[in-house]
Amino acid sequence: QRTVAYAQLVLGTYIDILNTRDFSEEIAERLNNGVSDGQSAQNDYVMYIPEGKTYSADGIKKMITYKSEEEKISFDVSVKSGSYEEAYAIARCIENTASDYIEEKYPGVGVVTVIDKAILSDKPVNNRTLLLTLAGALMGAIIAFLIAYIVESADTRIKDEITLGEKTGLAVIGIIPDMNIDNSGRKQTEERK
Asked: What is this structure's pTM?
């Protein structure tokens, strides 16, 4: 139990170290420079960095989340990005940098070992297309209803005898017909409103 308690304490220290702006700067610098130490297998992420894109420490820090669960001696690193290739490149850069960074900056703290490497997936992990479509349809219906209600409320014309009676407070006694004569000479009667 002491070993597990110590491991959890060290784990919290690792997360605190990796969650610093300094580590984010290190990741941003490596991504911006496409650092290669001659081991192409370790730096396979370089080819997935969008061309011409530059990273800032704050931008990288916002994309990365470190999480550990109680009674575990490991932690998860999540990278959220608009591009799965970019997320993969950042995750692989973290894998290749974390252990050396911790040993260089804080010697004797321990060694970070990657248990499960990042994988390149062509499918979004957090796909909210259905949710966004439903929200868009609902908002569209609400906006359309509001516009129709406002247009109807703003229309002050009198359209029928009931509205005329309500607006004037007087009783409607009769309706004057509209007399039209067609080409055959017959009269057509239409109700005038």
From this structure: 0.57
